[in-house]
Amino acid sequence: MTAPMAPRTDRPRPRSTYRLQVTPDFDLHAAAGRLAYLHDLGVDWVYLSPLLASEPGSQHGYDVVAFDHVDPERGGEKGLAALSAEARRLGMGVLVDIVPNHVGVATPSEDPWWWDVLRLGRESEHASAFDVDWSAGDGRIVIPVIGDDDEDAIRIVVSDSGEGEVRYHDQRFPLAPGTSTLEEQHYELVNWRAADDDLNYRRFFAVNTLAAVRVEDPEVFADTHVEIRRWFEEGLVDGLRVDHPDGLRDPKRYLDDLAALTGGAYVLVEKILEPGEELPTSWATDGTTGYDVLALVDRVLTDPAGEEPLTRLEDRLRGAPVDWAEMVHDNKRAVADGILHSEVKRISREVLRIAEDATEEPVEDAVAELLACFPVYRSYLPEGRHHLDEAFVAARAHRPDLGATFDLLEPVLHDEWGQPARRFQQTSGMVMAKGVEDCSFYRWSRLTSLNEVGADPSVFSVAAATFHDAMVLRQREWPHAMTTTSTHDTKRGEDVRARIAVLAEIPDVWEAALDELLALVPLPDPAFGSLLWQAVLGAWTPEHLPDLRDRLHGYAEKAMREAGDRTTWTEPDEAYEAAVHAAVDAVFDSADVQRVLTELCVHVDEAGRSNSLALKLLALTVPGVPDVYQGSELWETSLVDPDNRRPVDFDHRAAVLAGSDSDDAVTKLHVTCSALTLRRERPELFTSYAPVAASGSAAGHVVAFDRGGAITVATRLPVGLARDGGWGDTTLDLPDGTWHDLLTGTRTDGRLADLLAAHPVALLVKEN
After folding, report:
1. How far apart are the first and last CA of the chain?
2. What gap in Å lies between CA 710 and CA 542, rounded to an integer?
3. I want to staple 133 with a disulfide (CB 3.0 to 4.6 A). Which of 86, 200, 217, 584 is the partner?
4. Strands 239-242 and 266-269
5. Could you tell me which residues come within 8 angstroms of residue 316 by beta carbon, excluding any fewer than 6 positions away?
6. Following DSSP, what letter does each residue of 358-421 receive, concatenated?
7. Which residues face 751 on adjacent strands?
8. Do residues 131 and 213 make contact, with C-beta atoms less than 8 angstroms apart?
9. How far is the C-alpha of 91 from the C-alpha of 87, rounded, in Å?
10. What average pLDDT score do residues 585-598 get?
11. Mean pLDDT of 92-111
12. How far is CA 584 from the centre of its chain?
């Protein structure tokens, strides 16, 4: 393999991106046809979801089954060529999402590598590509697909040509050459419940149908990147977004290899940073995909005065105070003891191979406790060693009875070259994601706009000064990292969060409305009811789209099963779920419920629109590369996936942009287009960062900054602003020169009452 290449400083970087979800129904040819609209919107690069061949019918593309060609269902090689040619014609770049951590194995016959390994076992030329512990499972791959009491459905079928297969209903598996019985196969089909404890191949989180690949092996890296290499050799693609780097054995080495393969192309990593955590500067990347900025933008628009009353409300609904840190610990521990226990057992087996005095049960217990106590997603030893030290301190405090075992584990897990430490690092992020994002986020409902990927809901708000400090640092350290507000993975779309954030300014109004809603439609768990009604408030209007009922039912089912405290995916509680679904139906069928929601919207609608525009303009103009998630140039009221991956009406958006159609979100489109176009056409105005101060009675309600010639002005806490009488004499301390607002075309002397009379935001540049 070519030696690692340091990131080049002359490589092209985007000034903005626009994410498109490429699917069988919206393929690369269709995407190419939308690039002219994106260019008119001001977009610099198009940003595409995964393109490699994936499971048949896959709507997301993260279940890659082959690495040597673009998915035919997504347009294939010709589709990518057509899109790239159109992008070049328009002067646009192309950024593509790639998936190095795992492959899809739901349909073994679709993945030639997996099929070959199942057929030939360790003798397969692809055996080393998969992270399988052959010493477990009696030397066979454990495949957990059999339903309860359904073993009799497994059968061996021999075709007319003499080829044999193992079949379980409509699932097909290969028959090893020269064999005729199930016992002779290199895999064992077992009950689906066995995955928690007995699985012996690494997965993507707890998804059994996504098997991890060993890209740390140079040959595996080369084989899994053969098509990606072609993209760069032929000039089809300009940059990459790396999915889930925390699942890799050595993310730094992987990024070095990727830089060598692409010639130092623009690369982003989907890395979640906890508050205070920093991305390793040794990585060959331009930065993260932007969840860290999303969290800051949300919180600078959240009223800190709402924290105490909303906390009291949450405690009342739950019947006891909520300790977020303890909730996270307990849920992570449940994950380590449950759906990811097979990973804990594998780490423990690695420990037992090298630690002579270790015994299985206490080692498993201690490893699970350390994973539950780990403060961030993972370490990258030797970087992040202090996080591991912190985990040991917390684990000893939680479980002093395991002190001797922790003493044994500490040097083992600090050995960056040892197998246990490397596997522990790959696993800690899995436990964090499942315990926090996919569980705790659905159990704590204090203010759900804060329960977002990459954020800590216990951090309620940040002051404008704190926000500015973070942006100064970002401009200095990561000026080309991505900034995002909505993605295919966000729990709530940006405008849903903007509406929910208003509740921090009106906690008394919200509490009264929630109590009335819970009285009208009683729920077994009123705290979950708060989470549900906040989602309804975020997505509902009296003129809602006709599909909203089905969308809210889908959200409710996912939210309560992910919470997992009353009902689960594997053991649903029918009575509990029926009560929750009845609440959703009441949104559309009960006049009393609609009355409460309508009255609540009187307090939320205008302030929510103000928050939405502020959030959008801040994200589009802070340091970094702003990404517009598909469709979010108009209202983005999606909930958790798959809701946020619905098709987008681009014809309507193009017509609104052209002025031939109307939409009540036209101001958001105007803000988006103005900011994107300015960033693309005048990049010299976005090369620094300095706060712009305000003086006057309402100075605390504005956040403003100068990017080196372009000044962003955004309203914060609009309810309080209106309650206190508006802007009054509040004035921005503008730099010398004559400034005008691109959004309205009006000149300003900095008086906010005049500048923000038409919109709650402004984007200033000097005249001439």
Report:
1. 53
2. 38
3. 200
4. parallel
5. none
6. --HHHHHHHHHHHHHH-SSS--BTTBTHHHHHHHHHHHHHH-GGGHHHHHHHHHHHH-TTSHHH
7. 731
8. yes
9. 6
10. 96
11. 97
12. 26
CA atoms of 34 and 524, how far apart (whole Å): 47
- Rounded CA-CA distance 651/657 in Å is 10
Query: Average pLDDT in the 217-246 region?
Result: 98
Which single residue is written with the structure tokens 């990593």?
Answer: 269
**CB burial string 666-703: b at 16+ within 10 A, e below:** ebbbbbbbbbbbbbbeeeebbeebebbebebebbbbbb
Residues 6 or more apart in contact with residue 161 via CB below 8 angstroms: none
Mean pLDDT of 631-635: 97
Model confidence over 639-679: pLDDT tens digits?
A: 999 999 999 999 999 999 999 999 999 999 999 999 999 99
What is the model's pLDDT at position 719?
Answer: 98
State percent of the chain over pLDDT 70: 98
Q: Report the DSSP pairing between strands 164-168 and 171-174.
A: antiparallel
- CB 111, CB 66: distance < 8 Å: yes
- Can you give the pTM of this predicted structure? 0.96
Q: How many residues does the chain have?
A: 768
Q: In what order do the strands lie in the sheet with 45-48?
A: 266-269, 239-242, 93-98, 45-48, 17-20, 625-629, 482-483
**Phi, psi (deg, nearest 5) at residue 765:** -140, 160
280, 269 in Cβ contact below 8 A?
no
Phi and psi at 590, nearest 5°, equal -105, 120
CA gap 227, 728 in Å, rounded: 60
- Summarised one tens digit per residue, pLDDT across range 289-334 is 999 999 999 999 999 999 999 999 999 999 999 999 999 999 999 9
Q: Which two tokens stand for residue 504?
A: 């921090």
Q: Dihedral of CA 570/573/576/579: which sign?
A: positive
Tokens representing residue 369 in the block: 């406790």
Q: Average pLDDT, stretch 610-625?
A: 98
Q: Average of pLDDT values for 218-244?
A: 98
Q: What is the pLDDT of residues 134-148, one digit of tens each?
A: 999 889 999 999 999
Q: Which residue has the tokens 């309507």?
A: 652
Tell me 8's DSSP state: P
Q: Which of 579, 385, 604 is nearest to 507 (CA)?
A: 604
Q: How far, in Å, CA of 686 to CA of 692, rounded?
A: 15
Query: Residue 5's pLDDT is what?
Result: 40
pLDDT digits (tens, 9 = 90+) for 431-440: 999 999 999 9
State the number of CA atoms in the 13 A half-sphere of 99 facing the CB.
22
How confident is the model at residue 768, as a pLDDT?
76
CA dihedral for 414, 420, 422, 424, sign (positive or negative): negative
**Nearest one of 301, 559, 563, 316 to 449, comparing CA atoms:** 301
Yes or no: say if 671 and 690 are a contact pair by the CB < 8 Å rule: no
Q: Which amino acid is at 304?
A: P
Burial 481-506 (b: 16+ CB within 10 A, else e): bbbbbbbbbbbbbbbbbbbbbbbbbb
User: What is the reported pLDDT for 4?
Assistant: 36
Helix (H, G, I), strand (E, B) or coil at 692: coil
Distance CA 104, CA 203 (A): 10
pLDDT, tens digit, 9 for 90 and up, residues 453-493? 999 999 999 999 999 999 999 999 999 999 999 999 999 99
Q: What is the pLDDT of residue 3?
A: 39
The DSSP bridge pattern shows strands 739-741 and 747-748 to be antiparallel
**What pLDDT does residue 10 have?**
67
Q: What is the 3-state secondary structure (H, E, C) of 78-138?
A: HHHHHHHHHHHHHCCEEEEEECCCEEECCCHHHCHHHHHHHHHHHHCCCHHHECECCCCHH
**Are residues 112 and 122 in contact, defined by beta-carbon separation less than 8 angstroms?**
no
Pairing mode, strands 239-242 and 690-691: unpaired
Hey, how many other C-beta atoms are within 10 angstroms of the C-beta on 570? 11
